[in-house]
Specification:
The complex is a heterodimer of chains A (853) and B (290). Chain A is α+β, with helices and mostly antiparallel strands. Chain A is built from 27 helices and 30 strands. Classes of the chains: A alpha+beta (853), B alpha+beta (290). The structure holds flavin-adenine dinucleotide (FAD). The site of flavin-adenine dinucleotide (FAD) has 30 residues of chain B, from strand 2, helix 2, helix 7, helix 8 and strand 10.
Chain lengths: 853, 290
């Protein structure tokens, strides 16, 4: 930490201060979207497809329209007529992104695909009427699996795609063939991960409030990305001809001025990145879909012409885990309905909808080969990845972009001489793909699973293979073979070494032998990873040239007339305690108590713009970095004024406990209110202490790292896996709030345990979703989650701002550690774990206790 | 997931309740704790036109033990009340063994013993307990009272011998035999889930095994007794060999199905496991009771 803190701060950073959110949330006073009830609001229910794949031949809504309490029943005919399709975003070379609309019009592509929207006086009545909507479908052959999707004879989910292949990209780093030929052995395994669903406690929900006087829309939503939601709703509900847009834009001088200023500022902030953009993605898209530029232009011009963008107001949110980072088709349908009816509308998703269409993730097949020498030196890596994206890509980010992150991160902390990867994304008739906590995490699962498989093949210990191949401090700085810089923040080796001190392998082996005599099967599994949270400065461009433009984070800090500190973030907290940690950071910068800091988020009228919101473990490093810098800047302004008032030099002023004074003379100090009040007294409209800072993490940043160690005790009578001990050694740099960091790690590990032992959004061979309630989609409860033992290493990054992200890591490491432990426990029985999902039946099959049905 | 419209009745007397059942019969459902009925209605898998809430009926919330040791559990006895009852622990210990496995605390606080039996989920514990202990279900309607033996009560998946106009007013567990131990053994995916496979078991030993009951849940469309395995135990010593043999018979006679949570082979395997576990545990409890 900088010297600044010691002199002026009260030192909130680094302490487990109580969460400021808790008073509100734990006393039932949170304000969630379900709590918002504008006068006269209409309640929405969606009519959803019961078929995985079918044409819609006819829809008859007349009975539904006559049902009690119903105000409107809208189908694609009404909704799509006044909205634009979701356009391709983040186009990549070799990728085709289907255009899709809020409601399906001629075809349904998965169970739960929305086809109509009922608006009624209550959700009960809306659901009653939804049952009366008659839809005639003709079933089509469903595409139910990756294998189906790749079969040339399968029915196409999207007519313009190549069969069902939406993305196909291959990259080589180094001479892959030569390295594979030179190595002593090549070990190959096909690994597969099941479909999972982000399961936030609060489902999705949106209330569109219409101001009856002005028609202005206020969108209350459980969203991770308020500004993106605002823009997308503005863009997709402004359907007009290009000519009329241009004319409107030309007429509206204010709009024009604002647009030009905004564009200038965005270009200035992201100059380097924008210069780097390449257009190969757009060309790939154009080859498949010649209509897309027209939609893009219409949307772009519509945005210029539109003079009243909605306001997005998001407050307390009960989790999202990535799913709420997408803008959903329902949101657009609701906004369009509100505009058409001139009435406020409300939709709170139920759990069946959420499990069906709230977003799925992680269904991936990975064939991995490692070229290795007899001594355990891993030399080459080859990966063939196929992602099942379901019917619709998440918007704005689909699976294609995620495969790029997987590719960059796949080699992990190991030295490889060469690496080749092919990534494919296929379309199937399943629920849409969304990001899920560490969306790229299967690179860690597959790599760390493979390291164990390699070790077993070579009769070495998995720890030994890791240590032999892992980049250590003496080699730094260096680069991953995929590009990004490795500096001393890549401390995975340190976390592994610490883990080995913590767990005592010899003692475990003795325990294992004793347990074996009682017929119990113990195992231990390691997993090591580093993640870009935020990553070194060259990270984003390694993933995709130009995408660095996404990563800047803006924060604003002000000191109000009453002396209070207000910080404004574009982060969209939904369970991560930003309010507490940002108060800690700002308080330390400004030398005040956290009680003096107010954090403003989620209100697009007041918060800075962001293209992301909360995701990618950005909250600490980028969000926190921006808060720190804007607070520091506003402090500078305050001190300047105080120095003038105290007739002292700026350099002599310090702030302690909210008292601004000349060093050594605290008795002659000024309060924040005195300084701010002095300025505003003469001019109440003055707002002199107001700093907005953009921070893109350049120059510092770094990696977050961890080693997970899982111990399992398997009961071969039942197939159940107990986890008597779980150890995480993590390094996210200096910790803002240890209790919150531990909470993030524990939550991630809990979801990792869910992924391996409980959770599967399973479809049958006809693409019918099987797990649509919590009777069938099992999430672990407190009874299934062991105590999780967490150890911290706090490596400083070379730059000045040294917070690093921690939100996703728990879930990145856990599936590998758990599956490795399970294979270790069953290795004596010849078990080879190749799937992430290991429910009790699979455990017993692996152990040879039962045969598959 | 909102419950469709229905007419709500809250009778204040048993006669009124039985009258409503007579009038609405097929279109009505009794509402007890609501822990099975309401989720079914919310998912719109069942849509009765009338709900007859028996929550205010007098006199049905009692647990009594008669002079001969018979335990009578009224229709409004919640799982939680039964779980905490020393009378039940002393005189119908198999019920006490089963209750901690039923859902979670919140569910047991509202759900009723009789509701569970009337609902007849094949993976539920209490129907299997009723079958293991030869309990008697007392069904009342405006036509009179019927006493239905457990072996006649469970007819099919969520189907019982109760007529639409009948209320299950109580369940009677016969006096607990001497030298008899009880155990419930089950395996579920998570704590509190319905069982992948479970057994409610009693064993009576006097020098040798004189009687045994093995009543399985999660094994078929109704709770099911493994009579062949039970008979194989009679006359033998209560030891591992006898239990293994019984388990083998169970595994070869039960025909459990597959679902998302377990394959058929897994369930068959578990049937053997819970048989061995339950028999050993029940044996160890002989004498520890009543
Ligand atoms: C999350 C969850 C987990 C659960 N886990 C388990 C478990 O592990 N094991 C288990 O056994 N159960 C489990 N249950 C079900 C629970 O035990 C229910 O309480 C029980 O099955 C029904 O009792 P109830 O009083 O709530 O009945 P209700 O839900 O009110 O009624 C159920 C059915 O029985 C009928 N009925 C009820 N009482 C009578 C009566 N006196 N006469 C005639 N008909 C009647 C109703 O009409 C209805 O058809 C679980 C429930 C939930 C929600």
């Amino acid at each position: 930490m900088s010297a600044d803190h010691q002199t002026s701060g009260l030192g909130f950073v680094g302490q487990s201060v109580k969460r400021v959110e808790d008073q509100r949330l734990l006393t039932g006073n949170g304000r969630y979207v379900a709590d918002i009830n504008p006068p006269g609001v209409l309640h929405a229910a969606f009519v959803r497809s019961p078929f995985p794949h079918a044409t819609i031949d006819r829809i008859n809504v007349s009975a539904a329209r006559r049902a009690p309490g119903v105000v409107a029943v809208m189908t694609a005919a009404e909704i799509n007529a006044i909205t634009n399709p979701f356009p391709p975003f983040l186009m990549l070379d070799g990728m085709y992104t289907p255009l899709f609309w809020a409601l399906s019009d001629d075809r349904v592509r998965h169970i739960g695909d929305p086809v109509a929207l009922v608006l009624a006086e209550s959700r009960h009545l809306a659901e009653d009427a939804a049952e009366l909507v008659e839809v005639d479908y003709t079933a089509l052959e469903p595409v139910a699996s990756i294998a189906d999707a790749l079969r040339p004879t399968s029915r196409q989910v999207w007519p313009k795609a190549d069969g069902n292949l939406l993305y196909d990209s291959s990259t080589e780093y180094g001479d892959v063939d030569a390295v594979f030929a030179a190595a002593d052995r090549v070990i190959t395994e096909r690994l597969s991960c099941q479909r999972q669903s982000n399961q936030p406690m609060e489902t999705r929900g949106t209330v569109i409030e219409v101001d009856p006087r002005t028609g202005h829309l206020t969108v209350h939503s459980a969203t991770q990305t308020s500004h993106v939601l605002r823009w997308v709703l503005a863009a997709l509900t402004e359907k007009r001809s290009m000519g009329s847009s241009i004319a409107a834009f030309a007429r509206n001088k204010d709009r024009r001025t604002a647009f030009i200023a905004g564009a200038r500022s965005f270009m200035a902030t992201n100059k380097d990145s924008l210069g780097n953009q390449d257009n190969s993605g757009a060309r790939s898209q154009f080859r498949k879909d010649r209509s897309f530029p027209i939609h893009m232009q219409r949307i772009g011009l519509g945005l210029l012409a539109k003079d009243d963008y909605p306001t997005v107001l998001a407050q307390d949110i009960g989790g999202g885990f990535g799913a709420k980072g997408s803008v959903h088709r329902e949101d657009v349908a609701l906004a369009a309905a509100a505009i058409a009816l001139g009435r406020s509308v409300k939709w709170i998703e139920d759990r069946v909808e959420n499990l069906t269409d709230g977003g799925h993730a992680r269904e991936e097949d990975l064939t991995v080969s490692i070229a290795v020498d007899h001594d355990g030196t891993m030399r080459g890596l080859k990966v063939d990845l196929i992602v099942d994206q379901g019917a619709y890509p998440g918007f704005p980010v689909g699976a294609g972009f995620t495969t790029q992150i997987m590719q960059v991160m796949f080699p992990g902390s190991y030295r490889f001489e060469a690496f080749g990867m092919r990534s494919r994304v296929v379309a199937t008739n399943k629920g849409k793909y969304v990001a899920y906590r560490g969306p790229w995490a299967n690179e860690t699962w597959a790599r760390e699973r493979m390291v164990d498989i390699v070790a077993r093949a070579l009769r070495m210990s998995p720890v030994e293979v890791r240590l032999r191949n892992m980049i250590g401090e003496s080699e730094m700085p260096t680069h991953m073979i995929t590009g990004p810089t490795i500096d001393e923040t890549m401390s995975v080796r340190k976390t592994l070494e610490r883990a080995l001190q913590v767990v005592d392998l010899d003692a475990f082996e003795r325990e294992r032998a004793e347990a074996a005599e009682q017929g119990r099967h113990l195992g231990i599994g390691f997993a090591c990873y580093h993640e870009a949270a935020p990553g070194p400065p060259d990270y984003m461009d390694s993933v995709n040239a130009g995408s660095d433009a996404l990563t800047a984070e803006v924060a604003r800090a002000t000191i109000e007339a009453d002396g209070s500190v207000v910080v404004y973030t574009s982060q969209m907290p939904h369970g991560q305690s930003h309010e507490t940690t940002y108060s800690q950071v700002a308080a330390d910068e400004l030398g005040v108590s956290i009680d003096d800091v107010k954090v403003v988020w989620g209100d697009t009228r007041r918060t800075p713009f962001s293209l992301i919101g909360t995701g990618g473990s950005r909250g600490g490093p980028l969000g926190g970095g921006a808060i720190k810098r804007s607070s520091r800047e506003v402090r500078r302004m305050l001190i300047e004024e105080a120095a003038r008032m105290l007739e002292a030099s700026v350099d002599d002023i310090e702030i302690v406990g909210g008292n601004i004074h000349v060093a050594g003379v605290p008795s002659r100090g000024l309060t924040f209110a005195e300084v701010a009040g002095a300025v505003t007294a003469t001019d109440p409209s003055a707002h002199p202490f107001d700093a907005t800072v953009t921070y893109n993490g350049k120059g510092d940043g770094g990696w977050s790292c961890a080693t997970h160690v899982c111990f399992v005790d398997i009961d071969l009578d039942t197939g159940k896996v107990a986890i008597p001990r779980y150890v995480v050694v993590e390094d996210c740099g200096p910790i803002i709030n240890p209790a919150i960091v531990d909470g993030q790690v524990r939550g991630g590990v809990a979801q990792g345990i869910g992924a391996v032992l409980y959770e599967s959004s399973i479809y049958d061979e006809s693409a019918n979703l099987q797990a649509t309630t919590y009777m069938d989609y099992l999430i672990p409860t407190t009874m299934e989650i062991p105590d999780i033992e967490i150890h911290h290493i706090e490596t400083l990054s070379p730059g000045e701002n040294d917070f690093r992200g921690v939100g996703e890591g728990g879930m990145i490491g856990a599936p590998a550690a758990i599956t490795n432990a399970i294979e270790d426990a069953l290795a004596g029985r010849g078990a080879r774990v190749t799937t992430q999902y290991l429910p009790p039946t699979t455990i017993l099959e692996l152990a040879g206790v039962i045969r598959p049905d | 997931m909102k419950i469709p419209a229905f007419s709500y009745h809250r009778p204040e007397s048993l006669d009124e309740a039985l009258g409503l059942l007579r009038d609405h019969g097929d279109d009505a459902k009794v509402l007890a704790g609501g822990q099975s009925l309401l989720p079914i209605m919310a998912l719109r898998l069942g849509r009765p036109e009338h709900l007859i809430d028996i929550g205010r009926l007098p006199g049905l919330a009692s647990i009594t033990v008669d002079g001969r040791g018979k335990v009578i559990i009224g229709a409004l006895v919640r799982h939680a009340a039964a779980e905490g009852s020393t009378d039940i622990a002393g005189h119908a210990p198999l019920v006490s063994e089963a209750l901690p496995h039923v859902g979670h605390t919140a569910i047991r606080t509202r759900g009723t013993v009789c509701g569970s039996i009337a609902h007849a989920d094949p993976a539920a514990e209490l129907p299997a307990v009723a079958l293991a202990t030869d309990a008697i279900m007392v069904a009342e309607s405006s036509d009179g009272v019927r006493h239905i033996r457990a072996s006649d009560f469970f007819e099919g998946y969520l189907q019982t011998a109760l007529r639409p106009d009948e209320l299950l007013t109580e369940v009677r567990f016969p006096p607990w035999p001497d030298n008899t131990g009880a155990a419930v053994s089950e395996v579920s995916r998570r704590h509190g889930d319905f069982a992948m496979m479970g057994v409610a078991c009693t064993i009576s030993v006097a020098d040798e095994i004189t009687a045994a009951a093995l009543s399985f849940f999660g094994a078929d469309s109704i709770p099911i007794r493994a009579t062949e395995a039970e008979q194989s135990l009679v006359g033998r010593q209560p030891d591992g060999d006898a239990f293994d043999d019984a388990a083998k018979i169970v595994m070869s006679t039960l025909q459990p199905g597959a679902d998302l949570h377990a394959s058929a082979a897994h369930r068959r395997h578990l049937a053997g496991v819970v048989t061995r576990r339950a028999l050993a545990e029940a044996t160890s409890r002989i004498g520890a009771m009543a």
